[in-house]
Amino acid sequence: MLNRSNHQNPDSGNRLFLFGLAMLFALTLSFPAEAGGNGVAITGAQVLLPDGNLEGDWAVIVGNDGKIQALVPGSTVDEKAFDQVYRAPEGSVLTPGLHDLMGALGTRGKPGSLRSGTVLVDEQLDAGSSFDSTDPWLDVAAHHGVLYTTLVAQPLGVVNGKSATFLCHSDSSATRLGSGKMMLALGDSVLSANRVPTSRTALLSIWREWMQTGPEALKDPGLLYVAEGIDLRQALALPWSADAIPVFIHTGGDGRSPLNLMKDLPKPVHMVVGPLLEGGSRAHLMMAVRASKQGVELSFAGGLPAGPADHLRGSAAMAVSAGMDAAAARRALFSNPAQVSGALETGEVSAGKRADLVLFSGDPLDTASSVIHVWRGGHGTRVAEPGKVDELESVRK
Amino acid sequence: MLILLFYPGWVEGQLFQRPVVLEGVSAPTRNGTLEDLTIMIRGGRIAEISQTADVPLMSKKIPAQGLFATAGLVDHASVLTLPVGGSGEAKQWSWDGFDRFSKDDIETVLASGVTRVHLVPVRGSGISGRSCWVSLEEAEGGGHGVLIEEEAALCINLSSGPPSARIRAFDKIVEQFNNARDRRESLDSYESDLEEYLEELKKWVEEQAKDGEGEGEKSSDEGKKDDGNDGDEEKKAPEKPRRPDLDEDSDILLRALDHKIPVLITARRSADLLNACELIHMFQLDAIIHGADEAALVIDELKKLEDLSFIIDQPATSMAASGPGVLSTTPRRSSNLAALLEEHEMDWVIGSGGSGEGLWRMTRKLTGEAALSSAQSTNLRGLRSRRDSLRPGQNHIVLWSANPATQPAARPVKVIIDGEVVWQEASAARGGRF
Prior knowledge:
The complex is a heterodimer of chains A (397) and B (434). By secondary structure, chain A is α/β, with parallel strands linked by helices. Chain A folds into two domains: 12-96 and 351-396, Urease, subunit C, domain 1 (Roll); 98-341, TIM Barrel (Alpha-Beta Barrel). In chain A, helix 6 (311-321) packs antiparallel against helix 7 (326-333). The longest helix of chain A is centred in the N-terminal third of the chain and has 19 residues, at 12-30. Chain A is built from eight helices and 22 strands. Chain A has helices spanning 12-30, 137-143, 200-212, 229-236, 282-293, 311-321, 326-333, 335-341; strands at residues 40-43, 46-48, 54-55, 58-62, 68-73, 84-87, 93-96, 98-101, 121-126, 146-151, 159-162, 164-167, 176-177, 182-185, 223-225, 247-249, 270-273, 297-300, 357-360, 371-376, 379-382, 394-396. An eight-stranded mixed β-sheet of chain B has the order 6-7-8-9-10-11-12-13. In chain B, strand 7 (114-119) and strand 8 form a beta hairpin. In chain B, helix 5 packs across helix 6 and helix 5 (163-225) runs parallel beside helix 7. Mean pLDDT of chain B is 84; it is low at 427-434. Classes of the chains: A alpha/beta (397), B alpha/beta (434). The A-B interface holds A 7, 109, 136-137, 140-141, 144, 254, 256-257, 277-279, 282-283, 286, 290, 304-309, 311, 314, 317-318, 320-323, 326, 362-363, 365-369 and B 104, 108, 111-112, 316-320, 323-325, 354-355, 357-358, 360-362, 364-365, 367-369, 371, 408-409, 411, 425, 428-429, 431-434.
């Protein structure tokens, strides 16, 4: 019997059931825990489930291939069977990596280096070309639990190429995750005095005409940048096909008014908001909370390295204080960004996913929690300095 | 009628001083949680907290079942609705800059559980002005905010601008304090000069009177002899000493020099902290240091000063500002500043440094599990701390959705001041602009 926390979304029962089945399947077929095997066992921590709830008494088994082999009940783990056992401190929480969306992490702080130029529909542009794997801030971010960065080109055209997601690891070679999504834009940023469109009306006409041609770029859900509330309203009025509803990127301003129009869209609808900063726009914060209560799946935008290192968790904490459900806020930090960026091998602590894990001293929504340990592709790095010898949980044999 | 005749006080109490009752609340304590409490409020203040209280017949009940009660949070350094930047002077007063009709801003702060704020004027380098304490209850003339302490501290900013500007600001502050001392000396000497003058004037008047009488007798004889001469020179009247001009700024600085008000010095870098130490030592000030990010680097100098206390915060600095290979002027913040000050037995409290909206998150970040006890203990010398716990006599109460001591997702649901609900969660949804 699983011991549930208080915060549940309406689908959490079904999700949990499916999750439980998946775990059982993994337990019985993929990984005989009692029999043991090579790899690392992380025990003693609460684990973040895909539905955003925290669950205790689980052990995460990481294989030598850098992937999570299984999630098994902690009491069934035979520690002798593993190369390494990591006993997490009491109260700690194991999560996937945090995700910096649409920031400049990995560009050495130069987000403006990638532009779509004068071509309004540029499907060939690859945001990954601006990534610099030697950017030292990648490791700094990882020490704060941010293990992924998703880059996009500046939204200067209607189609601005594809996004690119990378593992935060300063190295000579980059680890690219997922295939990226088409970056679309509808708003002031596309307007120019030098070329069409020069007005919103012209931009909308271009959008409608382009959509009527059934373009390849709209076959799959893309990322749609809608800076203002009016952009969001106009975007929602466009004839989207049911299986290509984009992720709405609304990272500032007040979009509360058009939120009602989202009710008719097939679920789940994803939206990227923030970053939310202390003393920032109250209207944007309340918009995010209202959207979440309305069933929109949120992700918090990045802003690194310009923002404070822990601002992703800070955004979530602010949203929870303003009324957002805690489980929804955790999904907005971990699993939703993986969906949004298309890096589907990340974002969940479950069998078959990459073993990119972060061990927090407590609930990641709690600003008092700090990062203790991170694993990237199964390779662990101690972050917090132990105050005394017995705080070194890792046991090597 | 008989009751009215025989127990008029009881009837008046029941009808006109109806107690406010919160039933079924829990209260986090240092040792755990007390559950199923009844909190009775009379005259705006908690009269009783009990698990077995008898609820009066005519009491007004505020729904609070399952909620957690704490005292209102106190922000020891807030700029709520204040203008920030520009030049300051001692006579500027933060209460003058406070906009009590800024409903959205104030309700946002109330929604975070903060009910009292120390309004600290934040100006450019130098003397910023005087701070005050404000309770965020509804004011009689409309809006929110009641002044509860007019002159809390003289505020000085040693931390703004480039190094050259900070050096000039420090020299100017020293000069201003020296001028204030000179003014006191000239005021003192004026007083003694005035006394001397009055003595001399009295003598002079007497002499003049005496001379007048003598001259009257002689006048007829001498008038004939010395016709056309002025005679002996008349003794001049004593000169009245000049009163020093009015100088409100210096008078305020004199109150700080006379220990009538403490001085709140904002200093973050080690060099600024050393300047603050020098200033405190030079003029023997009752001082509180705000910021103290680099206290670890100069802790020995800070320890030399007696009765020094601190208001600390957690500035939101860019990750890139202190990244690898970056030469930054951003203060190097100690990750364990609160623990460091504890270790050296220095008093500290937490102030948001902003509007106060993020005070609770900042408190948890800085103190972790000890956040609630930290937010409710009173250990600040110099500046009077307003932090308090849930106890009889308290008039600021916050009801939380969950236990704030242990649940990071806990958030305020109702804020009660003087027995009135000044904010509740439902109203928050209507906040902001469309």
